[in-house]
From TrEMBL:
Keywords: Coiled coil, Endosome, Protein transport, Transport. The keyword Coiled coil applies. PANTHER family: TUMOR SUPPRESSOR PROTEIN 101, TUMOR SUSCEPTIBILITY GENE 101 PROTEIN-RELATED. It comes from Acer yangbiense. One of its GO terms (biological process) is protein transport. Residues 328-396 form the SB domain. This is UEV domain-containing protein. One of its GO terms (molecular function) is ubiquitin binding. Transmembrane segments: none annotated. One of its GO terms (cellular component) is ESCRT I complex. Residues 160-228 are annotated as: Disordered. Belongs to the ubiquitin-conjugating enzyme family. UEV subfamily.
Length: 407
């Protein structure tokens, strides 16, 4: 499938052709993903606008495994400056199924009177082109316009095609050729030494392009005025439709860009909401653990109040020393160490006051302070060990209670 005649001169028809082939559905649909068709269309429009010598087409491509698939291609010529003259190299650029995430395939397409230079650093004998730009293809920055520009630069360094040496035609005396060919290209085949330098093949465009209205027959002067009016009306309607479609396309492009921007904003907000939900779930778990701890401590306090409420109901004179009882030996040891530590603190305070009042000699003060400090150190060390053992026992008890609550 090819676009209608005059596509190079009419960007609207070019856009209409690309939109048509990329929007097809069913068995004839092109194998490109929906999220890349818009970018493929933009790449091709930029390519054909920058290089009008290339034409968009759809053709069947056969893979090495024999599988055939219908693909887009850019068929035409690439300009190549060489020794002050611009030549045109015929190429075919195939847009594979994975384009634009992967590079296209580029083939040099020699005609019958051309040969591919062997060896060539960028073109294989089969015509496959391999330039660094294709090897370093990066999505989405790489594009077809830059590719063709690189092809032109590399071909200018090393032309890939040469015209074959053709024998001079025999001129008939009965029918001489009044217009001999102005192009006398010479080539060097097989590495032979030629007197004239080899010149790359030049594909020259036709001096008179075909008419976009079909054959070049002269219209009859006796054409029906109704037919002329009808044709003019149809042309006017077509122009109006194209103008309306161009305006609608611009509006739709703006809407698509707005939708893409909205989609990016929604995705960013979705990530923020997911992050907030994860943080809230973490806080909920932490609050549930704290709630379980509060409930467990409340049960412990309620049990202690019920156990000791009967003891203080009928008591009139409460002895301070017997008001609190240690529940185990570790608690009793902790109580004794704490009492001894505080008693030593009181004695040291009394010695300080006596020294200030000169009631105690200084040497006796130092000797007593040294003995009391030593004894206080042992009491405090013992209290620290007892406190650590009590914490371990309490953690074990709390873990057992939490398992009970979970069950």
């Amino acid at each position: 499938m090819v676009p209608p005649a005059g596509t190079q001169a009419n960007p609207q028809q070019l856009q209409q052709f690309l939109s048509s082939v990329l929007s097809q559905r069913g068995p004839s649909a092109l194998p490109y993903t929906e999220d890349t068709k818009w970018l493929i269309r933009q790449h091709l429009i930029s390519l054909f606008t920058t290089y009008p010598s290339l034409d968009p087409k759809t053709a069947s491509f056969t893979h090495n495994d024999g599988r055939s698939v219908n693909l887009l291609q850019a068929d035409g010529t690439v300009p190549m400056p060489f020794q002050g003259v611009t030549y045109n190299i015929p190429v075919i650029i195939w847009l594979m199924e994975t384009y634009p995430r992967h590079p296209p395939l580029v083939y040099v397409n020699p005609t019958r009177d051309m040969i591919i230079k062997r060896p060539h650093p960028y073109v294989t004998p089969s015509g496959l082109v391999s330039v660094p730009y294709l090897q370093d293809w990066v999505f989405p920055s790489s594009n077809l316009v830059d590719l063709v520009r690189e092809l032109s630069a590399y071909f200018a360094r090393e032309p890939p095609l040469y015209s074959q040496r053709r024998p001079p035609p025999q001129v008939s005396n009965l029918n001489p050729n009044p217009n001999p060919s102005p192009i006398q290209s010479q080539s060097s085949i097989g590495g032979g030494n030629s007197a004239a330098a080899a010149r790359p093949y030049s594909v020259r465009p036709s001096a008179f392009p075909p008419s976009p209205y079909g054959s070049g027959r002269t219209q009859s002067q006796t054409e029906d005025p109704n037919e002329v009016y009808k044709r003019n009306a149809v042309s006017k309607l077509v122009d109006m439709v194209h103008t309306d479609m161009a305006e609608m396309r611009k509006v739709q492009e703006a809407e698509v860009e707005g939708l893409f921007s909205t989609q990016a904003t929604l995705r960013r907000r979705e990530d923020e909401i997911d992050k907030g939900l994860r943080e809230m779930r973490g806080e909920i778990e932490g609050l549930e653990q704290q709630l379980q701890m509060v409930l467990m401590n409340s049960d412990i306090l309620d049990d202690w109040v019920r156990e000791n409420q009967a003891k203080t109901r009928d008591a009139k004179d409460v002895d301070v020393d017997t008001a609190f009882e240690c529940v185990d030996s570790m608690s009793k040891k902790m109580l004794d160490c704490t009492a001894a530590d505080m008693a030593i603190e009181d004695v040291v305070y009394a010695l300080d006051k006596a020294l200030q009042e000169s009631s105690v000699p200084f040497d006796q003060y130092l000797r007593n302070i040294r003995l009391l400090s030593r004894e206080q150190f042992f009491h405090r060390a013992t209290a620290t060990k007892v406190r650590a053992a009590q914490m371990q026992a309490q953690v074990a008890t709390m873990a057992a209670r939490i398992e009970c609550y979970k069950g």
